[in-house]
Amino acid sequence: MASNNDTYADDRRRMVEQQLVRRGITSPRVLKAMESIPRELFMDPAFRSEAYADHAAPIACGQTISQPYIVALMTEALDLTGDERVLEVGTGSGYQAAILSRLARQVVSIERHQELSRQAQHALNLLGCDNVTLVVGDGSKGYRPNAPYDRIIITAAADHLPVPLVEQLAEGGRVVAPLGSEDQQVLQVMEKHGDQLEQQFLTPCRFVPLIEEGADG
Ligand code: SAM
Prior knowledge:
The protein is of the alpha/beta class. It has a single domain, classed as Vaccinia Virus protein VP39 (Rossmann fold). It is 27% helix and 26% strand. The strands form two sheets. The protein has a seven-stranded mixed β-sheet. It has a two-stranded antiparallel sheet with strand order 1-2. The longest helix has 14 residues, at 114-127. It starts with 8 loop residues before the first helix and ends in a 12-residue tail after the last strand. The protein binds S-adenosylmethionine.
């Protein structure tokens, strides 16, 4: 992606080195994807100059684009080899979906705000991410037409893993999600073995809430 008119290429390289490598992200595939996707394309224009700052930023509809480190950490935890079908719940800006598109075979991403999905589609089109399908709806119900999924990533906070997502996860598949209360969650990795979910805790985090259909918001 870096070219003569890629004004953010140096910022992106610095972000990878200082925010990701120094904090322990080691996967060469993840680092390469993070260095190749222009995060500025997914920012609200008012915050574009902060595209490579070390924090989450506001996007339309009162939502956020996640901190680059959290995107990299969740992506690394998915352990993608390139052949997976991935479901993302919470398209938001589309940035995480763009990173996933470089690392998996197929990505389905669900967002409840139509406007966000429309803007994300525009940015993904600019990058030629043609293995991403965006869906508007309640992601806590998953998306059965493309199930089962080898990996599921939830980028909004819930106090439990919605049952339809567990059902739509393939045997041996993996979920990465922030689970906990509205104020504080823990990023967790869960692997499905029969009717068991093996759990591993990554780090405390704070995400906007997962709004299930019928709830306010
Ligand atoms: N992955 C996003 C990115 O790369 O910009 C960041 C996602 S933002 C932290 C969380 C998103 O989840 C918001 O856009 C919000 O509207 C969405 N969301 C919340 N509840 C949802 C639900 N039930 N179904 C689908 N999307 C939901």
